[in-house]
Write a structure and sequence with these properties.
homodimer; mainly alpha; 9 helices; globular
Chain lengths: 207, 207
C-alpha cells in the first residue's frame, strides 16, 4: 500500500496550480481581455500582483490597528500587532492562504515582496527593542531573534486557525470557540515574551 | 485590476486537488488495479490513509528520538521534541505539506487522525507538566495552554522552513543557513518557555 500512498502524495504535492493567465481571468471578470493583458501580461505577473497586493493590504491593516491604539507602550503594541495579524488572516482567508502557498513561491525573491517582509520585521523589531529598553522584555534575549520567534508563533497560530486545525488540540473548555482559543494562545505567548503587558491593559480601538 | 486579482485568488484557493483515485495510482505504481481498489477503494480512502500513515510515521519518529535521549529531564525532552518535529518536517517535506494542506481537510474529523493529535498533545503536555513540577516552567502558566502555544510555534517554524519563507526575515549573520536560523529560533523559544534547560546540555543521540 505504501507505494500507492507515496504516488498519491507525490501527485498532490507536485500538482500545477490552476492556470491564471489574463485572458481567462478577463472573461471570468467581464473585462476586456486587451485591458487585462496590458495590466497583467502573464500568469507570473498575476501571481506577483496577488502577493504584492495582499502584503500591502496586510501591512496597511496592521499599521492602522496600531495607530488606533490608545496605549502606545511597546508591549501593548506587540500584543495588538499579533492580534491584528491573526484577525487579518481570518478575515482575509483567501489572501492569507495564497500568500503562504507554494503556488506563489516564485514571487518570494521579488524585490517588492521582500520590501513588505522587511517592513513587517522592522515594525516588530522596533517594538521589541523599545520593550527591552523599557524593561518589558528579558534583557538577555536578542530582539532580532525574538522577532523571528514571534513571527513563527503568530504565523503558526494563524495557519492552524485558518486551516481549521485548532480544534485538534484541546485547551480549556471544549465548548470554547476557536477565536477564544486562539486569543488565549496569543496572550499565553505574550506572557512568555513580555513582562507587565497586562497591567492597565486598555480596550483596543477597533478603528 | 483588483477584480482580476480577486478572480485569480479565488481560482487558486478553490481549485480541486489532483485526482487520486486508486486505478490511476495503480497504473502509475505498476500495481494490479484490483489489488489497489481493494486496499484503497476511493479517493477519500487514499487521502485518509495518507494522513494516517504520515501521522503514524511522524509520531514514531518523535518517540524514537525521545527514547534515544541520554538526558531525560523534561526540559531537554521538550527541546528535543521540537527539534525532532522540525527535522521530520524537513526530511518528510511532501508528507508535511500534504498533512497540513486543505487537500486532506476532510480527514481532520476522522477518529484515527484525532487519536494521533491527542497522542502528540498528550506527549507534549506530560513533559510540560513534569517540567513545571521540577521548577523548569513558570509556575503561573497553564501547561495545557502552553502545549498549544508550543505547537503553534513549532508548526509555524517548520512551515516557514519547508515553504522556504525563513529567508524573508533576517536573523544574525545573513550567510547563516536556514537550518542554523531555525535552530536559533527554536532555542530562543525554549529560553522563553523553560528555565535551566541549557544547563549540562548533552549532545542528543541521533539513534
Amino acid at each position: 500500500m505504501d507505494v500507492l500512498l507515496r504516488a498519491a502524495c507525490e501527485r498532490l504535492v507536485t500538482a500545477d496550480p490552476p492556470c491564471c493567465e489574463p485572458d481567462s481571468l478577463a472573461s471570468e471578470a467581464g473585462i476586456d481581455p486587451a485591458v487585462a493583458r496590458s495590466l497583467l501580461p502573464s500568469t507570473e505577473a498575476v501571481l506577483q500582483n496577488i502577493a504584492e497586493s495582499a502584503l500591502r493590504r496586510q501591512l496597511d491593516h496592521l499599521t492602522r490597528r496600531l495607530s488606533g491604539l490608545s496605549d502606545q507602550t511597546p508591549a501593548h503594541q506587540l500584543v495588538e500587532l499579533g492580534r491584528a495579524y491573526i484577525e487579518w488572516a481570518i478575515e482575509n482567508r483567501n489572501d492569507f492562504q495564497v500568500l503562504n502557498s507554494r503556488m506563489i513561491r516564485g514571487t518570494l525573491d521579488k524585490e517588492e515582496v521582500n520590501r513588505y517582509h522587511n517592513a513587517l520585521q522592522h515594525l516588530t523589531l522596533s517594538m521589541l527593542t523599545r520593550a527591552r529598553d523599557q524593561g518589558q522584555l528579558r534583557p538577555d534575549m536578542d530582539p532580532m531573534l525574538l522577532s523571528l520567534v514571534s513571527r513563527a508563533f503568530s504565523y503558526g497560530l494563524a495557519r492552524l486557525y485558518v486551516d481549521r486545525q485548532l480544534a485538534l488540540w484541546e485547551v480549556g473548555d471544549p465548548d470554547e470557540d476557536e477565536y477564544t482559543k486562539a486569543t488565549a494562545a496569543l496572550e499565553g505567548f505574550a506572557d512568555l515574551l513580555l513582562t507587565n503587558w497586562r497591567r492597565d491593559q486598555p480596550a483596543a480601538s477597533k478603528a
